[in-house]
Predict the 3D structure of the following.
Amino acid sequence: MSDVAPQQAPSDGMPSRSAAFEARLKKRYAAERRFKLTGLVAVLFSVLVLAFLLVTMTINGVGGFQRTELAVPIDFTEAGLTGDPATLSGPDATQLLEAQGLASVVEFYAEESLGANASAELNGNAWREVATAIIADPAILRTKQTFWLPSSADLAAGYEGEGSAELQALATDLAEQGKIDKRFDIGFLTRSDATDPQAVGIWGALKGSMLTMLVTLLMAFPIGVMAALYLEEYAPKNRWTDIIEVSINNLAAVPSIIFGLLGLAVFLTIFPNFRSAPLIGGMTLALMTMPVIVISGRNAIKAVPPSIRDGALAVGASPVQVVFHHVLPLALPGILTGTIIGMARALGETAPLLMIGMRAFVATPPDGLTSPATVLPVQIFLWSDEIDRGFVERTSAAIIVLLIFLLLMNGLAIYLRNKFEKKW
Amino acid sequence: MVTVIHPNLDQTDAKMNASDVSVFYGDKMAIDNVSIEIPTKYVTAFIGPSGCGKSTFLRTLNRMNDTIPTARVEGTITLDGDDIYRSKMDVVQLRARVGMVFQKPNPFPKSIYDNIAYGPKIHGIAQGKEELDNIVEVSLKRAGLWEEVKDRLTDSGTALSGGQQQRLCIARAIAVDPEVILMDEPCSALDPIATAKIEELIAELSGRYAIVIVTHSMQQAARVSERTAFFHLGKMVEYGRTSDIFTNPVEQRTQDYITGRYG
Amino acid sequence: MSPAILLLLAVGLGLAGWLAARARAWAFRRESSDGRLASLPTYHAWYVALWVVLPLAAFITLWSFASPYLVTQSVLATPAAAELPAFGIQRESILREAQSVASGSASAVFNPQSEAFVEPFRDALARYNLIGLLATLVIGFAGGAWAFLRLRPDFSARTRVEKIVMSLLLIASLVAILTTFGIVASLIFETIRFFGMVNPIDFLFGAHWAPDPMANPDNPDPTRYGAIPLFWGTIYIGAIIAMIVAIPLGLMSAIYLTQYADPKVRSWLKPALEILAGVPTVVYGYFAALTVAPFVRDLALSMGISNASSESALAAGLVMGVMIIPFVSSMADDSIAAVPQSMRDGSLAMGATTSETIKRVLVPAALPGIVAGIMLAISRAIGETMIVVMAASTAANLSANPLEAMTTATVQIVKLLTGEGSFDHPATLSAFAIGFVLFLVTLGLNFIALRVVKRFREAYE
Ligand SMILES: Nc1ncnc2c1ncn2[C@@H]1O[C@H](COP(=O)(O)OP(=O)(O)OP(=O)(O)O)[C@@H](O)[C@H]1O
Ligand SMILES: [Mg+2]
């Protein structure tokens, strides 16, 4: 080792320091910087698209949580309506009020305060909201109250500065008097589909989504987990297992619309009466979600160290006990993560549900697994097809609700993944 | 080629008896025609160069080889005269009687208590909570771990030190009241102090259980075992009293191995 | 009786069996000399419970199919049924209305004709509910009793229970095969029916696509069923335009994230990509239709291209490309990560810059994986539905101009199957033929890609 000379300062004679090399090096570094920059730009592009998407949806969607309303002061003391908590608590309370002419009372006060032109632009079902308020608190029948009631869709458009010139003028007029306003519309979250953008809500679709997801979860989770356990822990290496594996891997990549065709051709043939039902939708989505759960489940099961299985076997646990006492509990967080991701995907899925008829106009929330329903993404699709300007904002608002659910689910999945990452 | 059995073996009851055992992984032979008696009251050591099949043979004794799909065993192995490879054999019962401790400590990611209690629970050994508590305490005491963990039985077993974990695994094996304990290099992942503790423990346990230990350390074999079997290339070359094997081995290969000339 | 209630009953009976068997096993245990049983009491309990619940589950499933049919049949056997229209929607709705009144889910009938059937339905429902209930009880008790009587101190309940569990696991894993089989069978069946009406040659090689759901189904015009324009549209949008966007951006993102970004930045950017991957396609579709498509058209118009469509292939393809970016990126990420670190180190140690290492060593080494990822991405893009349904056209158009309107296979499937067309019409059936072609193509792509990925992984393991 004595022949190693002490490191000398780079002399000009060294080949690596030739001018040509220097120049080339400079070029190479420039290329390096450009390449890195390209990568950064590529990533930022995606981030920007995401940001743009979210911002557009939010800006549009905020309007969707609001609606244009007109101020209607009603003096119940002279309206001649009667009612007490006892009569107004029954199921027929609304009819009772209708029979007493609540609709014309509302119309009368609207005309008095807003004028004939504007009161004609009051939403046809506005009186129902007054009825709801009375039923909630019959005491207001002895008072004077100002109600903010939905306007017609046309006037709403006018207030936005669109549509016919007269209505735009009317809206400006009313606005000057402070009698028209865009107000937060809590009813958007509690009502169902309607033809009038002023009267729509997403509760029906949301409930349909929940019921559908319930069916999907109840079917896909147990079957998926059991299949994953079988394939990972017990399956002998043979042809059959290979076929199962190939099927699962391919199913995970089959276009979702094909599952819709399956649901249409098989499930709807077996249950022709359950068109549009969450049961069928859930079953179709379950077939789509199951492979996702199997694949992530197998990865989670694979991650459980074999030494734990050996330890359990060596004290005399049977293979089934090893799996259910040791492997499954340890793999469960991973399986759950995969399940949530699969469920999130199913929640956002539209195409297969169109195939099995969940695109029908359903104005009441489904009351069971077999009643006609629609789901949130399909509702978004249906609204996006509406020509009425009011639906644009409503669509964005529905998208926001859907995205919030998806973000929550994905957030939960990421949380689980981080919390339970390899403890052993 | 036959195994050399040292002539002056004292007569003792055999707990397990292997005759003409061969093990294959697929087509590859890993154990070639081994016959051996595992005495009831003694510690038996398996020594030999890496890859000679010690672990393989050890795992045939409680059928842990069943977990390897390609593994196949020929010959007969008996436990108290019962063929453990007969078709009616309940492997679960067998493993309760023939426990095993592994090279790397592998406590369950559960509490210390549950680690020990798991075996008795699945075998229905304890009649109630008190008896179970008692089993846990006795097992931990026998494994020399009680004093160190008695105040934190609910802590995770994986939170212990390596040596403690290995003693926990020994306690876990003891808890199901086995007749034989197989140990595959139980100290190879431990420091000298922990190793000394385990060796002490083996000495205490011998007599109560038949113990078979695989080790790469001649000193350890000499210290803890009464009997030693030397394996080479899948064959059992020489078997006899530990003192005989170490002081006057018959086979050249044994001689070479224990003097460190080879392996 | 709704199946849910019967299932609840089954679970209740199972629980009762569970408790009884456990008590019995404990009794054995107390009586035995050494306090040991062949199996734990819990396994005796599960053995009986499974024998109660599993036969019941099978029965209830069958019953929930059979009983509505039986109820309707018995109503149709009543004299009132003679008044019914022989078939058709009206008959259905009369019956259904009467049934919902009878079962209490509606309070009054609209159609006076239904009135006559309410009572028969009520009777039939009551009768079959009782039968279902009794059968449930009998089967539950029979199964439970049979299992219960087999319990002995030396009964190896654990082995039995484990056998049942194993069979259940095996059955669960067969569901995947069943699904694949179901897909193939239903597609083939309808496709064959379609090819009975329209010659496959006309379908696969014809260049004019305009099925008319209103035309006479018995005599379809084969020249309207040429699928080439939609295959072209599918490939043009999904495999060309979308990939021109997704491949470079996805690949560069993966390279930046794995090779350049420091962990902290990466921990922010990666979830952002994951969120992008999690955005439902209907949202992308809305975005495409509302924002991108008008923008593309206006841009084209402002550049003097007058025939730009507001349903241009370009807009749909661009958005689809964006949707696929995270997918390509994560596949490329995996492939690059699978390349052994030593290769990278070797190149860096020779004095190569990072980008040279990536371009000359990492990407070539990871290429099989990346190519497989791109194949999967294409398969995903051509099967994607909502973006094209919302942003592309329904009119078939064989053109290479990205600004023109084009349609895709998935758009046509949705269009043909969500209309009011009859199920026997060639226009409706052609959707299954398109679906079948789509399935085969994606299957082929996936199959090859998964094989390549597997080989590739094994090569570096
Ligand atoms: N699961 C397996 N599949 C195939 N061959 C195996 C398997 N396990 C072990 N072998 C082979 O069987 C032979 C014996 O292995 P074994 O593990 O029994 O050796 P060993 O004596 O315990 O070695 P060491 O001292 O290194 O632990 C070796 O050649 C090994 O490669
Ligand atoms: Mg070994």
